[in-house]
Amino acid sequence: MEKDLSTLVDLVNQAYPELAIIVNLEEWLSGSFEPPVAFIETQSVTEKANSLTTYRVIADAGIVIHYPKENGYYKTISSEPLRTILRKEKYSYRGKTDGLLIDINPSTLEVNNSKKDRTEITFRFEYLLTVPREKVEKINTFEVEEGYHG
Q: How large is the average pLDDT for residues 123-146?
């Protein structure tokens, strides 16, 4: 699982510990799951060099919370637990699994609960990733020639 996706899984688990989570698009599209469940998807928008050792990734996130059905009616699940965590953390969240820190753009946060069976939450976020480098053996022993007075 990608680091950004696992960070969002951690966020949803913190907000909704009782929900099962789906990250596989085919499984979600097939509809072969039993609500209540949350589907999480990320899509990378752009990657740019940030420094010599890091690059900045901007991505879009989609979280779909499917409501359980009771007595023929859907029992809504509020988006407030997720919003509360984001406000408390000032729209930054550090994943517990990978330790990745994501910064969410609050102006892009949209909650759509117009469908009777689910709430759809979308937003744009960014994070920094370290540029992978080869491990270089460090020189720990220096040989100094006698008689050199620089």
A: 81
